[in-house]
# Entry
Amino acid sequence: MTKTRVVVIGMGYVGIPMAALLANVPDFYVTGIQRMSKRSGWKIDCLNSGKSPFEGEEPGLDELIERVVKNGKFNVTNKYDIIKEADYILIDVQTPVDDHKIPRYESLIDVSNKISRYLKKEVTIIIESTVAPGTTNNIVAPILEKGSGLKRGKDFFLVFSFERVMPGKLIEYITDFPRVIGGGCSEANEKAKFLYGKVVKKELQITDTLTAELTKCIENTYRDVNIAFANEMALVAESYNRNIFEIIELINHRHDRLMHMPGSGVGGHCLTKDPWLLMYGLETYTPHYYTPKILPESRRLNDYMPEHIVELMESALEEADKHDNLKIALFGVSYKANTDDTRNSPSEKIVSILKERYHSHNIEYIAHDPYVKKKDYHETDLTQNIDKALTGADVLIFATNHRDYYELDLNHIKIKVRTPILIDGRNIFNRNSLEKLGFYYRKVGEGNRAS
# Structure
């Protein structure tokens, strides 16, 4: 059989599992490209030693990486000249937005320029990173054509086929979800189908490039809007002095309802930016565009939830008559339970709000997370020793629902803390149990004295 050589650019939550899965295919040989930097350059040595850089739970990934590296099917470098040998190039770099909600495409543009220098004919380039609708055709394609002197659809093929990964389920979400393929021509689609057909067990759905880009942005925006509705209803329930989680359970008892859960905020790399990418594409690439109303308000509401956590804390401090010389302990600095992904985590925003609002107060901050290491979190002192975080604390803020937190001994907590204030951002605890022990308790979505 003919060897298929694949280059995956960007060794993150998307690139690593995709590269490892493809390297496990017979006669597929995969090289990952990771740029050298103080924060991410270490991944090269880690992956080349056959180890996963992720600390969170990722079923099957550790064993897969170890196997493909041992078999000589997968290696990582920071050199781009390997592209000259590639049959497929996958682009998996971050595409964040700036403070003005404008896409920051520095990495995407830089990678596209570097790829263009080494392109050979017949190569297929697939963008898996989420981009504003219109980006593949209007930004990436011209860069590749100008830098290489080759023509898309004739000399090389360019496809947008977005990822749907979720930390904690990286492999499952690649293999067990349908895959949308948006090529510029039928041959590009067929080449992408050949690649993804080796690892994706579900349907491969073919469409055009712009529709594929729209599908990704709208899919994530749909979820963000639904979470915003849940968060707003949580605030409504608090106003009525009732428990939104009881209400959601009553609603979802209908087989045709599935209301989302509220919480301390929306984090991660996708939902916090993809609605803005969708709106940016509208303004940039459509001549007579509709201005969305729900999307920006949903984003603002979800961004407000960390501030609401602080408001709940202030309410509890008032009740406890505690105002200064505080030790505030945050539990969970990753944005998602049982993972180590800290991107745009609610905890980061909570700490930022607290430091800005109480910069003149004598406050000690400490954070705990069972998965995140100190090198990946820089907002406060971070420990994986839960007693260190608890001891002498005046405020406990639970922003992430890690499995470990459901198993905590409330009596032990009460003994360790100085002031028993607990703010629950993820419906981890029971009000009656805590208040019987003398805690000042606040929870997102539950009135202070619900009955």
Remarks:
- The first strand starts at residue 4 and ends at 9.
- The chain has three domains: 4-202, 217-296, 308-443.
- The chain has a mean pLDDT of 95.
